[in-house]
Amino acid sequence: MVGWLVAAALFGLSLLLVLNHFLPLILHFKSAPRGSFGWPVVGETLSFLTPHTSNSLGRFLDDHCSRFGKVFKSHLFCSPTVVSCDQELNHFILQNEEKLFQCSYPKPIHGILGESSMLVVVGDTHKRLRSQALTLISTTKSKGGYLNDIERTAIQVMESWKGKEQIIFCEEARKFTFNVIVKQVLGLTPDEPQTNRILEDFLTFMKGLVSFPLYIPGTPYARAVQARARISSTVKGIIEERRKKGEEANKRSDFLDMLLPVKSLSEGEKVSFVLDSLLGGYETTSLLMAMAVHFLGQSPLALEQLQLELSNWSVTNLFSSAQSEHQNIKRNKKKDEYLNWEDYKRMEFTQNVINEALRCGNIVKFVHRKAIKDVRFKDYRIPSGWKVLPVFSAVHLDPSFHDNALQFHPWRWEGQSQTSSKKFTPFGGGPRFCPGSELAKVETAFFLHHLVLNFRQKGP
Ligand code: HEM
Questions:
Q1: Which residues contact 109 (CB under 8 A, 6 or more apart)?
Q2: Vertex 344: Cα angle to 355 and 424 (nearest 5)
Q3: Dihedral of the CA atoms 246, 250, 254, 259 (nearest 10)?
Q4: Mean pLDDT lowest for which of 22-31, 328-337, 345-354?
Q5: Percentage of the chain surpassing pLDDT 90?
Q6: What does the CA dihedral 345, 347, 348, 349 come to, rounded to 10 degrees?
Q7: Per-residue pLDDT, 106
Q8: SS (H, E, C) 4-31
Q9: What is d(CA 339, CA 426) in angstroms, rounded to the nearest whole number?
Q10: What residues line ligand 1, using a CB cutoff of 6 Å?
Q11: Residue 9 placed within a domain
Q12: Which of 69, 147, 195, 396, by CA, is between 20 and 30 Å from 217?
């Protein structure tokens, strides 16, 4: 009897899942863009997420775009979805945030980031948190001291390479971006015990973000949720400590110091703000640095020119262009004088390298949105409630917008605006444009400054 009941329950559940999967397909068969839904429940998610090199679209998008066009329907992250590889539609989606579309990251991510994370909140709460974040960033920028912190941290990381035969650059880049962001947000230096504790918990937290969302003790997902709780209590401890010490402790001018007196944010929101900054400032920026160095070193053109340089010192190559730019900057500085904004603005070729690393590296390949109304755009119809994924990498690698799109060619940015445009959206766009974009670029530029001045690329 029990066996029959279990079988009937399983059958009912499967029927429900299959109906839930195919119903949107049947209802919107004619109106939604062409495409395929794949398997019940998982749909095409696994193929969509299959890893591929960052300067390629990957087999899934290549295949679907050639079969169905740049805009197609699919079933991803347990939801009927419209995937857009179309520049105009991507722009339209980003600009119509909260009017026609809304940020919508998968539910398990909410469990890890917390309900007050800026990536999760929508509507007025998002506006309030974001405006606070922008105020904080502009206050920090006006104080200026953080540029020195960035440079000091870069020098410290490179000094730790002395006497080493080999370093793993990705790890060094992570060390650098983590130390920069904990200093800026919490005022902590690498040798303080709290820094290590936060780093350990943060690494567990990051692993959980990309794991299967199963909350059973011991799974990476469950460990990440617990790690978030621990970081949260460490941050609360730091807040408590500063409150006790009062005014004299509040001279650090880090983010937390500026956040503490803000009445419009709850304690939970302040903690979330710290976590958002750590999350935003760590992995993405270290990836950008790794991409810049990878493309500088690995692009056949750069290598070829590097070889030419070895036999002919007058030939300009990627490294030497960057080197001469940085040598010029160094020449105009007094011994031990720190880099400033003017120096950063003068790093024009370096900024071209950074833009090109962002275009080819596609650190954030797509963002998550959902349609909050039935939307019609050109010939496409997006049903209300469907997930919508604007894919930035598809536009970055589209040869109709970028000549020789698959080639790393920093000179293409010469004379072009450095900010984002419809065809270049590494930091997103519209009301959710990344508030840390400038910090990420300055960090990378300052690190490259010391790297190209002090180190030489070894031939293959
Ligand atoms: C190369 C480095 C970075 C890349 C490629 C990047 C990319 C992005 C993208 C594409 C978004 C938009 C997400 C969406 O629309 O759903 C975003 C948002 C965000 N980023 Fe970044 N980011 C970088 C560095 C940073 C840094 C250094 C910080 C903080 C210190 C940061 C903090 C944030 C935050 C808080 C948001 C949410 C903004 C909102 O929803 O209003 N990011 N980032």
A1: 119, 120, 209
A2: 20
A3: 50
A4: 22-31
A5: 40
A6: -170
A7: 86
A8: HHHHHHHHHHHHHHHHHHHHHHHHCCCC
A9: 26
A10: 103, 118-119, 130, 276-277, 280-281, 284-285, 288, 363-364, 367, 426-428, 432, 434-436, 439-440
A11: no
A12: 195
Residue type for 47, please?
S
Tokens representing residue 179 in the block: 């130390």
Atom of ligand 1 nearest to the CA of 103: 16
Q: Is 65 annotated as a binding residue?
A: no
CA of 435 to the centre of ligand 1 (A): 6
Per-residue tokens: 140 = 């920090």
- Cα separation of the two ends of the chain: 70
Ligand 1 midpoint to CA 142 (Å): 21
How far apart CA 353 and CA 340 sit, in angstroms, is 19
CA angle 330, 332, 333 (to 5 degrees): 65
pLDDT one-digit tens code per residue, 90-149: 999 999 999 999 999 988 888 888 889 999 999 999 999 999 889 888 888 877 788 999
Q: Could you tell me which residues come within 8 angstroms of residue 34 by beta carbon, excluding any fewer than 6 positions away?
A: 68, 69, 72, 73
- Strand-pair category, 375-377 with 79-84: unpaired
Helix (H) or strand (E) holding 82: strand 79-84
Question: Which has more confidence, 430 or 42?
Answer: 430
Q: How many CB atoms lie within 10 A of CB 4?
A: 8
Distance in angstroms (rounded) separating the CA atoms of residues 296 and 444: 13
Higher pLDDT, 378 or 416: 378
- Compute the mean pLDDT over every residue in the chain, rounded to the nearest whole number: 84
Residue 449 located in a structural domain: yes
Query: 184 near 253, Cβ under 8 Å?
Result: no
At position 104, the amino acid (one-letter code) is: S
Specify the CATH number for the domain of residue 423. Answer: 1.10.630.10
Residue type, 64: H
Give me the mean pLDDT over the 10-28 stretch.
65
> Is residue 319 very low, low, confident or very high in pLDDT (cuts 50, 70, 90)?
low
Select from 438, 138, 456, 147 the least CA-distant residue to 288. 438
Q: Write the single-letter amino acid at 302.
A: A
Strand, helix or coil for residue 388: strand
Domain containing 145 equals 28-454
Q: Is 18 inside a domain boundary?
A: no
In single-letter form, the type of residue at position 172 comes to: E
Q: Within a domain: residue 11?
A: no
Total domains in the chain come to 1
Give the number of the atom of ligand 1 that is nearest the alpha carbon of residue 428.
Answer: 10
449 or 29, greater pLDDT: 449
pLDDT in tens, 405-445: 998 998 899 888 656 689 999 999 999 999 999 999 999 99
